[in-house]
Amino acid sequence: MSHDHDHPEYSELSEMDVRTRALESLLVQKGYVDPEALDKIVEYYETRVGPHNGAQMVARAWTDDGYRSRLLADATQAAAELGFAGRAGEHLVAVENTPQLHNLVVCTLCSCYPWTVLGLPPVWYKSAPYRSKAVRDPRGVLRDFGYELPSETAFRVWDSTSEMRYVVLPMRPAGTDDLSEDELATLVTRDSMIGTGLPVGAP
Amino acid sequence: MNGVHDMGGMQCYGPVEPETNEPTFHADWEKRVLAINLAVGRAGGWNIDQGRSARESLPPVTYLSASYYQIWWQALVNMLIAKGLICESELASVQSDGSRADVPLAATWEDLRPGIEQGSGYDRPTSSKPLFAVGDLVRARVMNPQTHTRLPRYVRGKKGVIAAIRGAHVFPDKNAATVWEPIDREPEWLYTVVFDGVELWGDESSDEIQVSTDAWEPYLESVSLR
To answer: How far, in Å, CA of A171 to CA of A41, rounded?
Structure first.
């Protein structure tokens, strides 16, 4: 295999770096963007949003039945209670996994994802393999992630074709009764809130 | 538009390949592309559906071979040129020709903050009543608009059940008017419609699989029970 094949991104990345600098420079010259605003946007999406938000929400639902009910009734409001609101989270719906039912979230048409509680989507979420396969073979998708769910588990796939945004409320792992809310939050993985994974410690 | 972006059900792309400990961004330019996209909307004056339409209108080979932020970069450049905000020679030379489109000033962080930190909902008041109720059997219409739509091909012609009424939301098919056309923001009722796996994929699927899409009322027709 040639060097190019081993590292297909290298030349592409540096070329994109040049092209993006050119675009930003031109847009600043022409007064269409403010570079300080760009810095602030990047900072916001690198620090303020991310799966840590969703994990806190899930841990709260695991420990507080009242919050769990509010989350399932109106996730936009329930997220806002914890300070999570904003772009790509205006119409949030939480869907609950049970021993009988496993939920999986996808956007077959582009990359719709609940930014306020999960941050920006991972590359695989936006990729052709995931977008094509999730709606046809959700069990196979879970296998791609290393999970084999019981054969009697039913699947419910949510294709995010509108501005509604879906987040999975996974099941609390057994044997975690003594853990605090903060400790529980560390078990809640990003993938468990998309439905392509389970919380840490789940069988 | 029936394009390569409409991927649900295709079988040619292989397994999903998750990346362990994936970073938020894989290169600095990706951060800037994201930020420029969010920041330039005010000067550009386009909406989310026009952005999506620009991305899915890229040549299929580009769409399938580019990374997602490369798709964003190219679609953004196409929109900026289509709207007359920049021209190709300026981009090639990285030098403004001194002209400026008659558009709002560059948005500052204070301008952008509310949209980012509070968001802007897509539900709108309407005087109409929803045509369907939860539990109704409906069929996704067989339709093939040349322009932007959010009804994926894999559900067209398939029967499903209304699982939720989400309110009246901005209708993407009209909101995604080309950048020089007036935009029609008349909302339409939005539903979550659940389809059985067997209805979508035949006997290779199973009763244990259900798939929902969110569908605006113009995408749906009632199914008479016989």
So the answer is: 34
Contact between residue A50 and residue A119 where contact means Cβ atoms under 8 Å apart:
yes
Strands A91-96 and B220-222, by their bridges, are: unpaired
Task: Give the pairing type, strands B209-216 and A154-159.
Answer: parallel
Between positions 188 and 217 of B, the ones with CB within 8 A of A are 190, 192, 194, 197, 200-201, 205, 208-216
CB contact under 8 A, B16 and A144: yes
Distance, in Å, from the CA atom of A132 to the CA atom of A107, rounded to the nearest integer, reads 9
Q: Which of A124, A136, A141 sits opposite B201 (nearest CB)?
A: A136
Kindly state the tokens that stand for B198: 């067997």
Neighbours of A179 (CB within 10 A): 18
Residue A144: which residues within 8 A CB-CB, separation 6 or more? A129, A133, B15, B16, B17, B18
Contact B117 A135 (CB under 8 A): no
pLDDT in tens, chain A (203 residues): 334 444 444 555 589 999 999 999 999 999 999 999 999 999 999 999 999 999 999 999 999 999 999 999 999 999 999 999 999 999 999 999 999 999 999 999 999 999 999 999 999 999 999 999 999 999 999 999 999 999 999 999 999 999 999 999 999 999 999 999 999 999 999 999 999 999 998 87
pLDDT score for B179: 63
Judged by a CB distance cut-off of 8 A, whether residue B100 touches chain A is: yes
**DSSP state string for B12-36:** SS------TT--S-SSHHHHHHHHH
Reading the block at residue B59, the tokens are: 């040549």
Per DSSP, the residues of A52-80 read HHHHHHHHHHHH-HHHHHHHHH-HHHHHH
* Per annotation, catalytic residue among A25, A69, A110, A127: A110
